[in-house]
Amino acid sequence: MELKHLPQVRICFVGESFVNGAGDPECLGWTGRICVSANKKGYEITYYNLGVRRETSTELKNRWFKETTYRLPKDYDGRVVFSFGVNDTTIENGKTRVAITESIANICTILSEAKQLYPVLMVSPPPVADKEQNIRINNLSKEFALVCNDLGVPYLDVFSLLENSTVWIDEVKNNDGAHPKSAGYAEFAQIVENWDSWLNWFPLT
Questions:
Q1: What is the pTM of this model?
Q2: Counting CB atoms within 10 angstroms of each CB, which of 56, 58, 59, 70 has the fewest?
């Protein structure tokens, strides 16, 4: 099948260390991998990784607009993929870094504004090696799903799939307890690549 030339697409991936691809010796993470795949389909992708390690949704709320609008001028086909939440659920000084009510308020603010400017997708936070934290991550993911449903933003729950993935969990446990290596990120990427909402952005032509 001959691929036709498609317009340039600029994508910002906004989030924390899992967006950044921390722990991946290939320095691609899941975001780089899905962009490689889109390029192989014939799309011209300009890929901006805006993942910041240890960042919470509160910090992200304060920076996403400036960083994405700078990289996605109106003259181009700009899109944004958000994925965050794990750092919100981390316990510090006897409490989570961000209260769940604040996390919900943050995602409401971020997505409400972003969807007015760009096509937007939201990917859930993934699991880690800590069972108690995973309960908090799962609860937050479910709340995020409700917000996305209300706002009409497509939401992908990778938590449930990766929690049952031997590849993901084993790599996380054998690495730093939070981040996998290449095989784990490849599995994450495959889940996103098979997501209807992502496929609608980049169908095979």
A1: 0.96
A2: 70
d(CA 19, CA 16): 5
Given a contact cutoff of 8 angstroms between Cβ atoms, the answer to whether 42 and 205 are in contact is yes
| CB distance 128 to 180 below 8 Å | no
Residue with tokens 């909402």: 197
Q: List per-block mean pLDDT (blocks of 10 residues) for the chain, which spans 205 residues.
A: 65 98 98 96 94 98 98 95 98 98 98 98 98 98 98 98 97 98 98 97 83
Q: Nearest to residue 122, comparing CAs of 80, 87, 88? A: 80
Distant-in-sequence, close-in-space partners of 87: CB < 8 Å, separation ≥ 6: 16, 17, 54, 55, 56, 97, 98
Residues of 50-66 as b/e, b for ≥16 C-beta within 10 angstroms?
bbbeebbbbbbbeebee
Quick one: which of 114, 117, 121 has its CA closest to 82? 121
pLDDT value of position 3? 45
